[in-house]
Amino acid sequence: MVGNTPIMWKSRCQGAIATSTYGAEFNAMKLATEGAITIRYMLRSLGTSVNSPCRLFGDCSSVIQSSNTPSVALKKKSIALCYHFVRENVSCGTISPIKLGSKENHAGMPTKPLERSSFVSHVNSLL
Description:
Elements: H1 21-45, E1 54-58, H2 61-68, H3 77-92, E2 95-99, H4 116-126
Parallel strand pairs: 1-2
Helix pairs in contact: 1-3
């Protein structure tokens, strides 16, 4: 978000098949990191200074914790590539992964079943 305006919001089915949720979530975080880098570059090109890291919200606590911990042993090469890319950007201060519960996650609204009150709350906050 820039101010109170959402810049990028994405929720979709993934095209690749992952053998674990952990791998799929790390792949999604890598894509979100690439998007954050692009948006930061665009804002700087427009003359806006970007001093703080972009906040990436996610509901998978293991991925959030792993991305904030510098020493994690990963055995699969595809996950390791995503992990190191995300970790590099966390350590540089480009992004800041934050755990967000499923009930507070606006991006999960179209993909997860919610109670009526939670759904109405999400819709009202976006409009």
